[in-house]
Amino acid sequence: MPDSDGSTTSHGPHDVASAAMRVTSPAGAPGTVAASTIRLSGVEKSYRIGSRRVLALRGVNLEIDAPGFYAIMGPSGSGKSTLLHLLAGLDRPDSGSVEVAGHRVDRMSERDLTLYRRRSIGVVFQQHNLIPTLTALENVMLPGQLDRRDRGELEARARTLLELLGLSERVQHRPDALSGGEQQRVGIARALLFAPGVLLADEPTGNLDSANSDQMWRLLHELAEQQRMTVVMVTHEPVAATHCRRVFVIRDGVVAGHFESEGLDAVELAHRALECRGTPR
Hints:
- The chain is built from 9 helices and 10 strands.
- By secondary structure, it is of the alpha/beta class.
- It is globular.
């Protein structure tokens, strides 16, 4: 399969997406896959820019009560990334409640937030944040080593994930020897190490070409459907959201509406999103 730099990996695009169906926790590996719900109620978040107070989120209410692939879609500055950061425990709301996988994230201590991000959820960023001096295998194992898990079990789990994501020939490569698509797949493997029930993805294909982007969206869809995960992706791209089961549209810091996206093409989905201008939900 050609990647963004012309390199190849051991699986084709269909194989890599289908591999997600087989990503399970081996005996003794950390974590078990479990469906998780997400609830936000009356969430507000503001920032100070000089002497100005900018309200990024204005009383957001949102509920996801079943596993699947969901999109939070909106233009730049709408508050969608702020919302994802609150779900990930990377920031705190000014008011309102944030519940993910049974955890009241807004009430957690800093230590509990660290453990929550490490053990209960997976996070994939546009910038994959790999450690440049570590190999692909070592990058995937790192959260488990920080958690003092058994090294042998961690290595077996990491190798399984990398193989199933089409990277069996790249396990000893450092990030600078990997293409953009390969680096992002290492990031996903790392996020799956503890088999979380919730996976959060912030513009995960922002640095990928169209072929690798499509492969990544199909991979996230397969993970959600086959592993009964709740995958939430922030995006501004209608074509990305066509892979999701439901789209939440955020405008000016509120959820303006949501709709089922199955069967919609990118143009139809964009029109539906523009129609979401009603009462925040």
